[in-house]
């Protein structure tokens, strides 16, 4: 070690006494040129990725320890069945799309990508996905709504394992104590929320934050009222937003609503700062961690008794990206089929508290988790956010966020939504 | 400017020299040329590195702002030029004007607050008193906390109903229900205040270092002349501190103008776009809407603003050098 160091030092600093002009300059220049080349080389390397014949990669957003473990177990089972190794690569949800795009341009896409269903159309639109039906996947036992959920322009690109939607969660103890029933209509919800608003406790908590969370939570109000994302300034959407404004005016909602994510809403509910909340089944694991909290779940109230409660369909879909290697794509299709099989769906759904996409699995699930029964009902009629707009959803979502935040902080719903509609159309 | 071109001429000049003189005799011209070559050899790695990691992305970003760059591009590699379409779209968007204004207010407000408080603390800590070192290192804490963590913690502190700050103000009996992050009028101010909190340590440390450099004799001389503390500060300390002040302000400007993570963690640009800055707009265009051309336009505007200040900085440094 010390010997090597000395020789290195000598090369870098030749003794000043030796005046060997030519040799010296060349000796000095050469290593530096080599360094430059190395730097350039290092920058260009790492683009291509060697594929191992029997190793398949799945990119997903299961960065939570529990989800990562459940997925790893499912992949191990499917890998054993198909005689291949399946590797899981988890990146934060917000990075799945951009990472997949970058991998597409460097031709190093993984064999399977799990997209959030609202992002899948964008990737499909760019020509990045393979039709799952051509890979032999069947959609026989999957309800139409969920087939549409995984489809873009009529082609079935994404197999959902489980789906979720929003529901009304309520604190049983608080409702019992106040002697009120679980609300089913807007009028009841407003009255109940007002009654339950006392001291530190708000009647209802929901997310109206400036991200997709807030838009997701606004859709059941917009859709159940007959409003539509293609007509943001239509009277039905205005009415839905006015309803939110009414809740805020009654002080049934905290003013911080505009700054809350869905996770914040859950924290507030668990801390006893809200008697009811709008949220999804992915919070159940956390809710159950507090044994003293007795919560119930119900469909989101509708404008008038008898209306359908139309919630947003959420969840991820497994897709096979277009890598051009047909043999690998075929095997990837088999892996997707295995991961989305009836048995795997049930396992995943029981772990994650979401509803299996497959109708048969959902029936078994209902028996096993009766307390979430109403969620299964809601999922059956829930609507996909991107069904109408496809890749255009993101512009509408951004415009809508800005609109309900403006309205909740003082502007009139009509003005805010008019502006949103303009922004959504000019942005496309 | 000299270029590596002379290498070729060296070869040409060598041939006659070789014929007339013994090879071992040193030729002063040749040595000079070799030395120049060696100098370029030293500079080359830096030049290559800069071109690759700074020049290329910069040029690419400018080019991209004139292209129709969509998710499709990643597959087909095709990104047709669309003239100034991206630029006119972005400039016509009312949100761009808003974001530009917010960015300016945010930057000016943050710099002013960070600098004044940082300077005051630096002057305070340049005196000797017990626990000076401990307190100074405590004030460094905000600097050690990652921006996103600060954002998340402050979002909780500033929550209108359950936040610690409002509860505290409530017990004091003043403004217990301030809508820090939930009112479009307040949100930008709150975000600036949090950023000031984050930026104080940096300002304090650099300015404190600058204060240590000022010879003690100058202050003694001023004291002998009968100058008051304020007069000494104004006429001795501040002028001597000027080079450090330039560094602090310019570096502070560069890191503040492109703010993104803090705002995303605190408000997500809301409520009602009240805290959208050029940074969040770039992020939204490129990574939410996947309109990379529009994102590049806003990014370029940011680079342009920073470049103007970089030039000021370099000029200021040059005059200091003379």
Describe this structure in words.
The complex is a heterodimer of chains A (428) and B (322). Chain A is of the alpha/beta class and 428 residues long. Chain A has 2 domains: 55-164 and 313-384, Periplasmic binding protein-like II (D-Maltodextrin-Binding Protein, domain 2); 167-310 and 389-426, D-Maltodextrin-Binding Protein, domain 2 (3-Layer(aba) Sandwich). Helix content of chain A is 49%, strand content 13%. Chain A has 18 helices and 15 strands. Chain A has helices at residues 2-12, 21-44, 65-82, 96-105, 120-125, 144-149, 172-178, 186-196, 212-224, 235-249, 262-270, 284-288, 326-339, 342-352, 359-368, 373-381, 393-408, 413-426; strands at 55-60, 85-90, 112-116, 151-152, 155-156, 159-160, 162-163, 167-171, 202-205, 274-279, 295-298, 312-313, 316-319, 355-356, 383-384. In chain A, helix 3 runs antiparallel to helix 14 and helix 9 (212-224) packs across helix 10. Chain A is globular. Mean pLDDT of chain A is 85; it is low at 1-29. Chain B is mainly alpha-helical. Chain B has a domain at 96-318: MetI-like fold (Orthogonal Bundle). In chain B, 75% of the residues lie in helices and 0% in strands. Chain B contains 15 helices and no strands. Chain B has helices at residues 6-20, 28-64, 73-76, 85-92, 94-125, 132-139, 141-144, 147-157, 164-172, 184-213, 216-224, 229-257, 261-266, 278-288, 292-321. In chain B, helix 4 packs across helix 15 (292-321). The longest helix of chain B is centred in the first third of the chain and has 37 residues, at 28-64. The radius of gyration of chain B is 27 Å and the shape is flat. Mean pLDDT of chain B is 85; it is low at 1-21. The chains are: A alpha/beta (428), B mainly alpha (322). At the A-B interface, helix 2, helix 4, helix 5, helix 17 and helix 18 of A face helix 2, helix 3 and helix 14 of B.
């Amino acid at each position: 070690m010390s010997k090597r160091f000395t020789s290195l030092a000598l090369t870098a600093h030749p003794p000043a006494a030796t005046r060997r002009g030519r040799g010296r300059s060349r000796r000095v220049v050469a290593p530096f040129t080599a360094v430059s080349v190395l730097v350039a080389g290092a920058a260009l390397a790492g683009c291509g990725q060697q594929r191992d014949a029997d190793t398949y990669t799945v990119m997903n957003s299961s960065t939570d320890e529990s989800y990562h473990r459940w997925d790893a177990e499912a992949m191990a089972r499917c890998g054993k069945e198909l005689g291949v190794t399946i590797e899981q690569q988890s990146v934060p949800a917000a990075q799945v799309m951009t990472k997949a795009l970058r991998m597409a341009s460097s031709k190093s896409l993984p064999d399977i990508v799990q997209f959030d269903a609202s992002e899948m159309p964008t990737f499909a639109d760019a020509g990045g996905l393979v039709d799952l039906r051509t890979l032999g996947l069947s959609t026989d036992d999957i309800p139409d709504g969920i087939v549409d959920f995984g489809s873009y322009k009529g082609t079935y690109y994404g197999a959902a394992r489980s789906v979720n939607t929003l529901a009304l969660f309520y604190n049983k103890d608080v409702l019992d104590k106040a002697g009120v029933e679980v609300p089913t209509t807007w009028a009841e919800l407003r009255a109940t929320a007002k009654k339950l608003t006392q001291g530190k406790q708000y009647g209802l908590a929901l997310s109206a934050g400036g991200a997709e969370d807030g838009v997701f939570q606004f859709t059941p109000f917009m859709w159940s009222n007959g409003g539509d994302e293609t007509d943001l300034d239509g009277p039905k959407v205005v009415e839905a937003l006015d309803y939110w404004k009414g809740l805020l005016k009654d002080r049934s909602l905290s003013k911080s609503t505009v700054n809350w994510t869905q996770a914040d809403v859950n924290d507030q509910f668990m801390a006893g700062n809200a008697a009811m909340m709008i949220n999804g089944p992915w919070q159940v694991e956390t809710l159950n961690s507090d044994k003293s909290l007795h919560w119930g779940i119900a469909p989101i109230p509708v404008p008038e008794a008898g209306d359908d409660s139309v919630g947003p369909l959420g969840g991820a879909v497994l897709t096979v990206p277009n890598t051009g290697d047909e043999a690998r794509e075929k095997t990837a299709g088999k892996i997707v089929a295995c991961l989305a099989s009836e048995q795997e769906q049930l396992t995943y759904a029981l772990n994650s508290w979401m509803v299996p996409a497959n109708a048969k699995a959902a029936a078994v699930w209902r028996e096993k988790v009766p307390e979430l029964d109403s969620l299964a009902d809601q999922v059956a009629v829930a609507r996909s956010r991107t069904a109408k707009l496809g890749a255009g959803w993101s512009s509408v979502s951004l415009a809508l966020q800005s609109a309900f935040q403006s309205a909740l902080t003082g502007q009139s719903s009509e003005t805010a939504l008019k502006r949103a509609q303009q922004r959504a159309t000019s942005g496309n | 400017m000299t270029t590596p071109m002379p290498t070729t001429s060296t070869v040409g000049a060598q041939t006659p020299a070789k014929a007339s003189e013994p090879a071992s005799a040193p030729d002063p011209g040749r040595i000079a040329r070799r030395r120049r070559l060696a100098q370029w050899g030293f500079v080359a790695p830096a030049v290559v590195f800069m071109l690759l990691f700074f020049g290329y992305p910069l040029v690419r970003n400018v080019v991209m702002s004139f292209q129709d760059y969509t998710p499709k591009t990643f597959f087909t590699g095709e990104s047709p030029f669309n003239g100034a379409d991206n630029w006119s779209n972005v400039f016509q968007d009312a949100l761009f004007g808003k974001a530009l204004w917010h960015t300016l207010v945010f930057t000016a407000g943050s710099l002013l607050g960070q600098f004044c408080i940082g300077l005051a603390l630096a002057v305070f800590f340049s005196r000797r008193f017990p626990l000076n070192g401990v307190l100074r290192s405590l004030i460094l804490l905000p600097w050690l906390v990652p921006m996103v963590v600060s954002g998340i913690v402050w979002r909780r502190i500033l929550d209108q109903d359950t936040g610690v700050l409002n509860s505290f103000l409530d017990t004091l009996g003043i403004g217990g229900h301030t809508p820090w992050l939930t009112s479009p009028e307040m949100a930008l101010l709150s975000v600036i205040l949090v950023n000031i909190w984050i930026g104080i340590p940096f300002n304090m440390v650099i300015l404190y270092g600058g204060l240590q450099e000022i010879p003690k004799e100058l202050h003694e001389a001023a004291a002998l002349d009968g100058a008051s503390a304020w007069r000494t500060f104004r006429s001795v300390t501040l002028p001597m501190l000027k080079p450090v002040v330039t560094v602090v302000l310019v570096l502070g400007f560069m890191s503040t103008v492109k703010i993104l993570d803090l705002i995303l963690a605190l408000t997500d640009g809301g409520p009602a776009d009240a805290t959208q800055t050029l940074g969040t707009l770039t992020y939204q265009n490129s990574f939410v809407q996947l309109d990379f051309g529009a994102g590049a336009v806003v990014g370029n505007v940011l680079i342009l603003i920073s470049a103007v200040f970089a030039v000021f900085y370099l000029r200021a440094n040059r005059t200091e050098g003379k």
